[in-house]
Amino acid sequence: MASVFSGAPPQGGPGYSFKQIPTAAPSGERQHGFYPYTDNGGSTLGISGEKFTILAGDTRHTQGYNINTRYAPKLFKIGGEGPENKGARIVLSVVGFAADGDALKERLDTIVKMYKYQHGKPMTVSACAQRLSHILYNKRFFPYYVHAILGGLDEEGRGALYSYDPVGSYEREQCRAAGAAASLIMPFLDNQVNFKNQYEAGSGTGHDLQARVAQPLPRNVVEDLVRDAFTSAVERHIEVGDGLQMMIITQDGIEETYTPLKRD
Amino acid sequence: MNHFPQTWGRPRDDVYGAYDHSHFQTAGPQQHTQSPIVTGTSVVAAKFKDGVVIAADNLASYGSLARFTDVKRIRKFNDQVVVGFGGDVSDMQYLDRLLNSLDVRENYSTTETPLNAKNLHTYLSKVMYKRRSDFNPLWNHLLIAGLDGESKPFLASADLLGTTFAAPTLATGFGAHLAQPILRRTVPDEASVQNVSKDEAVRLVKECMKVLFYRDARSLDKYSIAVITKEGVELKQDEKLENQSWAFAEGIRGYGTQVN
């Protein structure tokens, strides 16, 4: 405490004259105090079948340990007519930073609607998928912080599913889980949809083992898989829960279902 | 005290270290808001059968200093929309001017229907998202309460990141931790909104304001409360907390001067 009572000028510090006080800031980078992203939790999942595609997502919306709301959809119909997207055949699911997700949805939706207005025919899923990749890549250096999954039916009427990273890399897949519980759900899907680590019974041991060949699953089986995946994820991940929203895209349109999940 | 008049009234370098002259700069890159300065604390709101109740206290804090004790943070937009502001007060005042000009423009325009709560929430969330994308955020957490296009109760939030969500009950800031669990006890889901009357909702929100005053150090016992129904907006700006009971304080151990 001696220094508190010493009247002597400090050693080495700036002097007491006003003239010595620098008026310019020290050069160098300054840290920004504002971080423009947050994680709103939740998980999404998509599986494509022979003549359908299912997209699913939980409806919990979180920020840290807070639950903002128990019903905030992560699944959006893209295209169709009007604000209700009547007659749409494409579904987008987004998980990650919800504000970016909403902005991305809005942009893709207007693009797909403008496409129909300008070309007189609805946009194909493959075209929409590529366009979504371009939208994401256009913001390569300030990305939409979301994992997007796009689902629909291709030109042959088969289920089509595309998954994306935040900067637009994309790939058509049979199934994909994204978001907070992706690491919990994806291995389950690998095993149950693509039959990974499954072998034909009685095909032998060691190198004789015949891998079980994956084939498109019927719709009721896929729906059950989705429900199982989410009820399990809810048990092990705190950011997943409250409700399960599913959209099933078929030849006849988009069917939407909601089933409650645990709210704890 | 020393004999250098230049240093009088300044923090002493030998005690506090050299002054950080980066705060003193006159030139340099353009700076955007890095942190809020004068802030308002929680806003709480709940839907009920035929409307929404929203409340916030009248305090604007400067750090831990209770700086302005008569700041109205609940703003009526028109006969069916009210906005509650948490966070930076100067940004709130900017948004207030913005909403004023929007209202004037709307009233001069030829459109028949006035903006409803849903419209205003969309507008404000786009403003907030645009500003965050410009790295120049409006440091607020807003609750937009009122009636939607079908005259049904509407309650949603928008924050400095442009994040939006809607729920039967909402609370910002400290209220998200303290008030939201109390509100959810009565209104757990959208369906139960129908079982809540106006009086019940008002009582519930007032109870939350009381709990917040007990435990939020940056709160005040003077608050504003608004009820939005089809009949219009009923806004009271000089309410005082009633029926406080600090009896529970006796039971609190481990803080202050008592040993055990």
Keywords:
heterodimer, A: 264 residues, alpha+beta, Glutamine Phosphoribosylpyrophosphate, subunit 1, domain 1, 5-stranded antiparallel sheet, 5 helices, 26% helix, globular, disordered N terminus, B: 260 residues, 8-stranded antiparallel sheet, 28% strand, nucleus (chain A), Ntn_hydrolases_N (chain A), cytoplasm (chain A), Proteasome_suB-type (chain A)
Structure description:
The complex is a heterodimer of chains A (264) and B (260). In chain A, the strands form three sheets. A five-stranded antiparallel β-sheet of chain A has the order 10-1-2-11-12. Chain A has a five-stranded antiparallel β-sheet with strand order 5-6-7-8-9, with helices on one face. Chain A contains five helices and twelve strands. In chain A, strand 11 and strand 12 form a beta hairpin. Chain A is α+β, with helices and mostly antiparallel strands and 264 residues long. Chain A has a single domain, classed as Glutamine Phosphoribosylpyrophosphate, subunit 1, domain 1. In chain A, helix 2 crosses helix 3 and helix 4 packs antiparallel against helix 5 (219-236). Chain A has helices at 2-5, 98-119, 125-138, 182-192, 219-236; strands at residues 43-48, 53-58, 61-63, 66-69, 75-78, 90-96, 146-153, 159-164, 170-172, 175-179, 243-250, 253-260. Chain B has 260 residues and is of the alpha+beta class. Chain B has one domain (38-241): Glutamine Phosphoribosylpyrophosphate, subunit 1, domain 1. Helix content of chain B is 28%, strand content 28%. Chain B contains five helices and 13 strands. In chain B, strands 1, 4, 5, 6, 7, 8, 9 and 10 form an eight-stranded antiparallel β-sheet that branches. Chain B has a five-stranded antiparallel β-sheet with strand order 11-2-3-12-13. In chain B, a hairpin with a 2-residue loop joins strand 12 and strand 13. In chain B, helix 4 packs antiparallel against helix 5 (198-215). Chains A and B meet through strand 4 and helix 2 of A and helix 1, helix 3, strand 10 and helix 4 of B.
